[in-house]
C-alpha cells in the first residue's frame, strides 16, 4: 500500500488522524490517558458499549432471575444464535453458519471430533510448525483418542525461514493419506495472512477437509468463508473483537455440513424448539448451533453484543483499510527512524499477506519491551526475539504510532533497555 506524501513529522501524524474516517470510534473505548496500548492483538480494550451490554445483562439477572432466559433486554436462551447472526458479516458466512459458543480450544476439539473421519489410508492431519501451541495439543490429543500415534499422524509443515509458511509447501503436504488440514488464517507471531481461498480449493481438489483458526483475523480482516467454501473455522473474541478476557469464542460450519452429528454432543446443540422436551434422543439443530455443548457462559458473551454494534457501524472493510494504512505508516516510520538499530520487520510487506500487527524482531526484544512499558507503552513480547505491536483500527491513533516510534528511538539511542534483563515475564 502506498502512503502518499509520507512524512515522518508529528504534524503529518496529526493530519492523518484528522483525515481518518474511523477516528470517531476512539472515544467509544476506554483508552488510557497516559499510556499507549499496542496489544489489542492479545486483548482488545473495553468499549463503553460492551460495558453497557454486560451491565444490562447483570440487570436482567437481578430483575428476572430464571426468567432472564426468555425475558429482558438480551434473553439468554437466544444469545448465542443472535450473536452468530451479528458475527456472520465479519467472517463472510450465512447467519446460520456461525454460533458464538465455547472457546478457541474447545471449539477446535468439537470441530475435529466432528470432521476428522479417518478412513483407509487417509488418516493424517496436516498443520504447520509455526501454529499456536494449543492447536497442536488439541490435534495431537484427538489423534490419540482415535488410537493413532500423534507423532507420525500429525504433519507439521516446515517454515523455510522461521517466520512464514509458504502456501506451496502446504499444498505439497496435501497427499492422499491426509484426512484433514487445520491452519491459522494469520500466524500469531509473524502476522502472515495465508491465502485461505487458494488453500481451500487445493485441499478440496484432493478430497481433504480444511478448517481455520481465525483468532488473529476476526475483527481485523474481512473473510468470505462461505464463498471460499471453507469447511469450518473457530476463533476467540477477546483479541480484535474486544469482548473481554476469557470471553466466549465463535465457530463457523459450512452449510453443506449441516446435519453432521457433533463429535461432542450436548443439550445446547439440540434443535431449539425441542431442547426443553428433555428427551433422551438427541436431535441436533440444523445450523452451526448444533456444535454448542452446554449452557452458554452468558456473562462472558454479554460484552460482545455491544462490541459487535461498533463493528456493524464501522464496517469490516473500512476497518481493514485503516489497519493496512496505519500499519504501513508504522513500518515506514520504523524503517526511517530506526534504521541501523538492528530491527527487522518480520511480517510480510504485501497487503494481501499481512494481518493486523507489526512483527518487530530484535535480539534485545525482551528488554526493549520492558523499556517500552517503563515509557507507558504496552507491547507484547514473543520469545525469543519478537515485539508484536498492533495499531488497532478502532482505537489507535496515528499520533500514538508516531510516539511509539519516537520512544523506541530514544530507548535505543540512550540504551535505556540495558538496565533490564533480556528475559521474559510470566505472561509474555
Ligand atoms: C489466542 C489464540 C488461541 C487461544 O485459544 P483459547 O482457547 O482462547 O485460549 C488459540 N489459537 C490462536 C492462533 C490464538 O491466537
From TrEMBL:
EC code: 3.7.1.3
Keyword presence, Hydrolase: yes
GO biological process, one term: NAD+ biosynthetic process
Pfam families listed in its UniProt record: KYNU_C
Reactions performed catalytically: 3-hydroxy-L-kynurenine + H2O = 3-hydroxyanthranilate + L-alanine + H(+); L-kynurenine + H2O = anthranilate + L-alanine + H(+)
InterPro entries, sorted: Kynureninase (IPR010111), PyrdxlP-dep_Trfase (IPR015424), PyrdxlP-dep_Trfase_major (IPR015421), PyrdxlP-dep_Trfase_small (IPR015422)
Enzyme class: hydrolase
Residue numbers of N6-(pyridoxal phosphate)lysine PTMs: 239
Required cofactor(s): pyridoxal 5'-phosphate
Pathway: Cofactor biosynthesis; NAD(+) biosynthesis; quinolinate from L-kynurenine: step 2/3; Amino-acid degradation; L-kynurenine degradation; L-alanine and anthranilate from L-kynurenine: step 1/1
Molecular function GO labels: kynureninase activity; pyridoxal phosphate binding
Binding residues annotated for pyridoxal 5'-phosphate, in chain numbering: 104-105, 132-135, 213, 216, 238, 267, 295
Gene Ontology, cellular component aspect: cytoplasm
UniProtKB keywords: Hydrolase, Pyridine nucleotide biosynthesis, Pyridoxal phosphate
Assigned protein family: Belongs to the kynureninase family.
Subunit: Homodimer.
Job description of the protein: Catalyzes the cleavage of L-kynurenine (L-Kyn) and L-3-hydroxykynurenine (L-3OHKyn) into anthranilic acid (AA) and 3-hydroxyanthranilic acid (3-OHAA), respectively.
Name the record gives this protein: Kynureninase
Protein's organism: Neobacillus massiliamazoniensis
Species lineage: Bacteria, Bacillati, Bacillota, Bacilli, Bacillales
Gene: kynU
Amino acid at each position: 500500500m502506498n502512503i502518499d506524501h509520507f512524512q515522518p513529522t508529528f504534524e503529518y501524524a496529526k493530519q492523518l488522524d484528522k483525515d481518518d474516517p474511523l477516528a470517531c470510534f476512539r472515544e467509544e473505548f476506554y483508552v488510557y490517558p497516559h499510556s499507549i496500548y499496542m496489544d489489542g492483538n492479545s486483548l482488545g480494550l473495553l468499549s463503553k458499549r460492551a460495558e453497557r451490554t454486560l451491565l444490562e445483562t447483570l440487570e436482567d439477572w437481578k430483575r428476572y432471575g430464571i426468567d432472564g432466559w426468555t425475558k429482558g433486554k438480551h434473553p439468554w436462551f437466544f444469545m448465542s444464535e443472535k450473536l452468530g447472526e451479528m458475527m456472520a458479516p465479519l467472517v463472510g458466512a450465512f447467519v446460520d453458519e456461525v454460533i458464538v459458543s465455547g472457546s478457541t480450544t474447545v471449539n477446535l476439539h468439537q470441530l475435529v471430533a466432528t470432521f476428522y473421519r479417518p478412513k483407509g489410508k487417509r488418516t493424517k492431519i496436516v498443520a504447520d510448525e509455526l501454529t499456536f501451541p494449543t492447536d497442536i495439543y488439541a490435534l495431537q490429543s484427538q489423534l490419540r483418542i482415535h488410537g493413532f500415534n500423534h507423532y507420525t499422524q500429525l504433519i507439521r509443515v516446515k517454515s523455510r525461514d522461521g517466520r512464514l509458511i509458504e502456501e506451496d509447501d502446504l499444498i505439497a503436504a496435501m497427499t492422499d493419506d491426509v484426512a484433514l488440514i487445520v491452519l491459522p488464517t494469520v500466524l500469531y507471531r509473524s502476522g502472515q495472512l495465508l491465502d485461505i481461498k487458494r488453500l481451500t480449493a487445493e485441499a478440496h481438489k484432493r478430497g481433504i477437509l480444511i478448517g481455520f483458526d481465525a483468532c488473529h483475523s476476526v475483527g481485523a480482516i474481512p473473510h468470505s468463508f462461505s464463498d471460499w467454501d471453507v469447511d469450518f473455522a473457530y476463533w476467540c473474541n477477546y483479541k480484535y473483537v474486544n469482548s473481554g478476557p476469557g470471553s466466549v469464542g465463535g465457530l463457523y460450519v459450512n452449510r453443506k455440513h449441516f446435519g453432521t452429528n457433533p463429535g461432542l454432543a450436548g443439550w445446547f446443540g439440540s434443535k431449539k424448539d425441542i431442547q426443553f422436551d428433555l428427551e433422551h434422543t438427541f436431535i441436533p439443530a440444523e445450523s452451526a448451533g448444533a456444535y454448542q455443548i452446554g449452557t452458554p457462559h452468558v456473562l462472558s458473551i454479554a460484552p460482545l453484543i455491544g462490541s459487535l454494534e461498533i463493528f456493524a457501524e464501522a464496517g469490516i472493510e473500512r476497518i481493514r483499510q485503516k489497519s493496512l494504512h496505519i500499519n504501513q505508516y508504522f513500518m515506514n516510520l520504523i524503517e526511517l527512524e530506526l534504521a541501523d538499530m538492528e530491527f527487522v520487520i518480520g511480517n510480510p510487506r504485501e497487503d494481501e499477506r499481512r494481518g493486523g500487527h507489526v512483527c518487530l524482531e530484535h535480539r534485545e526484544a525482551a528488554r526493549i519491551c520492558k523499556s517500552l512499558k517503563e515509557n507507558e507503552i504496552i507491547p507484547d513480547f514473543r520469545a525469543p526475539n519478537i515485539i508484536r505491536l498492533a495499531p488497532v483500527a478502532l482505537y489507535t491513533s496515528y499520533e500514538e504510532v508516531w510516539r511509539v516510534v519516537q520512544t523506541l528511538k530514544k530507548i535505543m539511542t540512550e540504551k535505556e533497555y540495558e538496565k533490564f534483563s533480556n528475559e521474559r515475564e510470566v505472561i509474555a
